Amino acid sequence: MKLDLTAKTFAKVIEADLIGVLHAVLINEVAYDTRKLPRTEGVVFFALKGAKQSGFAHISSAYQLGLRNFVVEEVPLQPLPEANYFVVKDSLFALQRLAAFHRQRITYPILAITGGIGKTTVKEWIAQLLGAQLKVYRSPKSYNSQIGVALSLLTLPLDGDLAIIEAAITKPGEMPRLQEMIQANYCLVTTKNKGTRHEFSSPAAYVEDLLLLTKNCQWVLDGDDYDPSKIDNFEQLALSIPFSDPIRIQNAKLALACALQFGTCTAQAVAQLPNLANRLETFEGINGATLINDTYTLDLIAFEGALSFLKTTSDGKPLMVCCLLAPNQSSSKPAIIALLEAQQITQYYIWEALPSELPNITNHAVLIKGNQYALTEALLSKWKQKSHSTTVSYDLSALGHNLRQYQQSIAPATKVLAIVKAQAYGAGLDQIAQQLVRNGINYFGVAYADEGVLLRKAGIELPILVMNAEPASFEKCITHHLEPAIYSLEHLDAFIRVLISNRIQGFPIHLKLDTGMHRLGFLPEQIQRLLQTIRAQPEVLVQSVYSHLACADDPQHPMNAQQIQIFKDLCTQIQAALPYPFIRHILNSEGAAHFPEAQFDMVRLGIGLFGVNHDPRFEAKLKPVFSWSSRISQLKKLSKGAFIGYGCTDELPQNTQIAIIPVGYADGFKRSLSNGVGGVFIDGQYCPTVGKVCMDMIMVLAPNARPDAEVEIIGFNQGLSDFARKAQTIPYEILTSISPRVQRTYTND
Q: CA–CA separation, 704 vs 301, rounded Å?
């Protein structure tokens, strides 16, 4: 959508002072990320503030890319030539004022969707049910934040029949701003009783703010309290819903009930509701390829975003796009080709059916686009690297969300070091590290130098701390600019000798102090001798001094205060002896949540980034990153008295059905979960194990399961911490023990 605003009008709308030379320009589009610039003419860059970074720092790079219009909160000390600066008090408020202005120009109604969970799925299904009879526009994917809603509104054309805008809140005070922008004619609340309530004081406070969106609406559909019997033809159409699990059935019924408020629906349309991923999914492909699956919509706006994601995650691989069209979508082909060529995509294929000979994807980054679910599955089955039906999935957008939650709990000047040892807790070093870089971390931490080398080969340029740098790996540290942690005088002496032989001075090192945990590290009585060596050896430069709390997950333990005080005293002693500053850090994920007074200069985040924290109040702010699923291999109806599995340790007390699932202790499903100790969820029902866990499979009691049903091992119904508790272990062990043979997939909003 072109805004078509003169610089003067634009400045008036966002309440800005205009400073610049090119006032006779038209403002047509907005941008806030220099990595997502499809064009520059007529584009204005909003320098938005983030938790750790500000768009103000990227003005120079945006200018080099061709942008000349900038919304800023202060003018640079050295203004760029030929640049317009729209100076505002708050750049986010300015973006929202622009969105509210554009909303007033739209004459067709807006349906707002909010609630704890299910918003994006319900939105997409409503659009699909109404798409044949109405011109429906909707916010791309999960664009439901303070920024996302504004951007969604700004993409809406002036002509249409209905717009569907998603809105989400994470803390008090956010909904009034969303409501003022959206000015919804109608509102759908998916649920008020589920989902993360973040910083709200109570569930009631969350619901009160949520319902502010319904102000001035002609009607409100409440997913927790609506009567489908009062909706014409609802019960008959609901019989065609193609799902069997409770969550998708609930969401599909809600979408149907809402769609029937605007028009008619057919049983065929209901039966064709797709099983939406709603997020970009990344898979390992054959022959070194990376596959990105984004096949739930053909919106050009969403297409543009997917292309941006393809470029930022390709790791230098050649780009390819495969677009799968339904027969009635052929008219979209010219616009798709124009978009691909404008984005300089030279390898692309647009199909209505899979060709007999597929293109060679060796070492390519491939985006698969469209909404042909059957074709997508057929294509992925040929191109995915592994065929094991057990899959672990990592939600990269949740990873970014969790990082932001920690960033909000620490001081703005405090740096963040992300621990990605053990293949990022089994998640895959490349994918996790790249996402963390995009979200603005400052440092990486690994256990061994080889892990740091892998990060460097993946293009990571941030500093990397190697926490267990063995002498045999010192040469690798030097070659790949990895910074070793030094934990003993002998260790320091060995590294200095290597530096001398390489004629290197001022190489960064990190001093590990033992303040009470008694693993690696210098004891307090060794500090003076350590300092004598460092002062005498110009080969090394102390980059940081750190320690580790033994009881960070128990905030009341007296050991925490004792260690923090010892660390503080030792840092004071070291700083007095060195002529330069260094970074101090003692807090891990648990510590960062519990001891704000001990943040010092940096915190180290590991398991917390995956949504795990011992404090339920803090964990409520986080989102699960990890999920684990499989499918039923076989169902068996067995009679009372039948024995199950090795050793005949379980005898069935009655006639029942069991399900055999292709996951076992070789995949990471612990043998300790045998004989009903553990279990899985099938179609929303808990199914305990029966018999012993085998190397490659488990058996579970599943009296109501369907053939080939999806099996949730860890996910919505059974969280990572719950699963680990049943296995009598900790989440770390579960994450790191998932076998490499299990397919990894990555999703990203």
A: 42
| pLDDT recorded at residue 719 | 92
From 3.30.420.40, 3.40.1390.10, 1.10.540.10, 1.10.10.60, which CATH number describes the 5-91 domain?
3.40.1390.10
Question: How far, in Å, CA of 56 to CA of 47, rounded?
Answer: 5
Q: Which of 192, 384, 421, 476 is catalytic?
A: 421
Contacts of 323 (CB under 8 A, 6+ apart): 298, 336, 348, 349, 350, 351, 369, 370
Per-residue confidence band for 296, with pLDDT thresholds at 50, 70 and 90 = low
Torsion of CA 719, 720, 724, 725, to 10 degrees: -40
Q: CA-based angle 385:389:392, to the nearest 5? A: 80
Angle between helices 119-130 and 246-259 (to 10 degrees): 50
What are the CA-CA distances from residue 453 to residues 416, 425, 511, 606 (Å)? 20, 17, 21, 19
Instruction: Based on the residue annotation, tell me whether 421 is a catalytic residue of this protein.
Output: yes
List the end-to-end C-alpha distance of the chain, in Å, as a whole number: 22
C-beta separation of 121 from 245 below 8 A: no
Q: Name the fold adopted by 394-619.
A: TIM Barrel (3.20.20)
Contact partners, residue 340, CB within 8 Å, separation at least 6: 307, 321, 348
Question: What's the rounded Cα separation, in Å, for the pair 189 and 119?
Answer: 8
What H or E segment, with its residue span, contains residue 651? Answer: strand 650-651
By DSSP bridging, strand 84-87 and strand 679-682 are unpaired
Phi/psi at 271 (5° precision): -65, -20
36 SS3 class: coil
- CATH fold group of domain 626-748: Lyase, Ornithine Decarboxylase; Chain A, domain 1 (2.40.37)
pLDDT digits (tens, 9 = 90+) for 494-548: 999 999 999 999 999 999 999 999 999 999 999 999 999 999 999 999 999 999 9
CA dist., res. 55 & res. 50, Å (int): 8
Q: Provide the 10 A C-beta neighbour count for residue 458.
A: 14
What is the CB-side half-sphere exposure of residue 417 using CA atoms within 13 A?
A: 24
Sheet-wide strand order for 69-72: 17-19, 84-87, 69-72, 43-46, 29-31
> Smallest Cα–Cα separation from 29: which of 67, 56, 60, 82?
67
Residues paired with residue 165 on neighbouring β-strands, in sequence order: 112
What is d(CA 504, CA 546) in angstroms, rounded to the nearest whole number? Answer: 24
Domain boundaries, the chain: 5-91, 106-271, 280-385, 394-619, 626-748
> What residues does 111 pair with on adjacent strands?
164, 186
d(CA 252, CA 121): 9
Distance CA 277, CA 61 (A): 34
The CATH classification number of 280-385 equals 3.90.190.20
Band of the pLDDT at 265, cuts 50, 70, 90?
A: very high
Instruction: Please tell me the pTM assigned to this model.
Output: 0.73
Give mean pLDDT, residues 612-616: 88
pLDDT in tens, 706-728: 887 889 999 989 999 999 999 99
Among the listed residues 382, 457, 637, 646, the single catalytic one is 646
Check pLDDT > 60 for residue 198: no
Q: Residue 58 has what pLDDT?
A: 80
**Which tokens sit at 653?**
């007390």
Q: How far apart are CA 111 and CA 607, in angstroms?
A: 38
State both tokens at 39.
């064009």
Give CA–CA dist 624/719, Å, rounded.
8
